[in-house]
Design a protein that fits this description.
It is a single chain. The protein is α+β, with helices and mostly antiparallel strands. The protein has three helices and ten strands, in the order H-E-E-E-E-H-E-H-E-E-E-E-E. The chain folds into two domains: 74 residues; 122 residues, Mannose-Binding Protein A, Chain A. The longest helix has 80 residues. The relative contact order is 0.12. The mean pLDDT is 84.
Length: 238
């Protein structure tokens, strides 16, 4: 009997100790579980907040896309009303339908707030004048040394080109195509010489002197031309 009591006491003590260990472990697990649940709840809260932000940004993006489409439709309507604008503007990205406007028409060169077109085809002076007019421009009027140097530099090494200067209406009086009289010329050598008595229109020659490259030639001869027009008015460059 005594042995059984001793055995029971020993096992009871062991059970109590094991029970205490289990309780301690349970308490730890419960604390860990509470922490995990709290972190889960916090994560869900933050995720919900991020989702709200994403949805708000998506709504704003959709609104902006709608506004862009409306603006592009208005731009298209403007181009239909003023077709000459299409010379300056084009689709930068066909997929996004984004219009981009530049200071000069496509294929023209910008210099000092003016646009210049250097033709490849050749025409007589009158037809060259008409061709420039059809492009919304005119044969170039050179009214500064800077412009003269630009024309010379751009023409250097190329073919002769008509400019907007003539004395056809009155021999000896050189007039620009806008009706103003020539004040400063950049004639080559002994030019103008009116050789043959019919040289009434002026070209810029591709010679080596930037300020002496004008020559008077027969207006009926065919040469390339230089057209000039203003930059697009609402560009901020000028």
């Amino acid at each position: 009997m005594k042995n059984e009591l001793d055995w029971l006491k020993e096992n009871y003590s062991s059970l109590i100790a094991a029970s205490q260990v289990l309780w301690t472990n349970y308490s730890i697990l419960a604390a860990v579980n509470d922490k995990v649940q709290n972190e889960k709840a916090e994560l869900q809260r933050k995720t919900g907040g991020l989702q709200n932000i994403i949805e708000r940004f998506q709504m704003e993006n959709d609104s902006l896309q709608t506004k862009i489409k409306i603006l592009n439709r208005r731009v298209t309507e403007i181009f239909k009303t003023f077709p000459s604008l299409e010379k300056y503007c084009s689709f930068e990205d066909v997929e996004s339908e984004e219009w981009v406007c530049k200071p000069c028409p496509q294929g023209w060169e910008l210099f000092n707030c003016k646009c210049y077109y250097f033709s490849i085809d050749e025409k007589n002076w009158k037809d060259s004048h008409t061709a420039c007019k059809k492009q919304g421009a005119d044969l170039v009027i050179i009214d500064s040394r800077e412009e003269q140097e630009f024309i010379w530099r751009r023409s250097k090494g190329n073919k002769i080109k008509w400019i907007g200067l003539t004395n056809a209406p009155m021999e000896g009086i050189w007039m620009w195509v806008d009706g103003t009289r020539l004040t400063t010329g950049y004639w080559d050598g002994n030019q103008p010489n009116n050789q043959g008595g019919n040289q009434d229109c002026v070209v810029a020659e591709p010679n080596s002197n930037s300020f002496q490259n004008w020559n008077d030639l027969d207006c009926n001869s065919s040469w390339q031309r230089i057209c000039e027009t203003q930059v697009l008015q609402f560009t901020p460059l000028c």
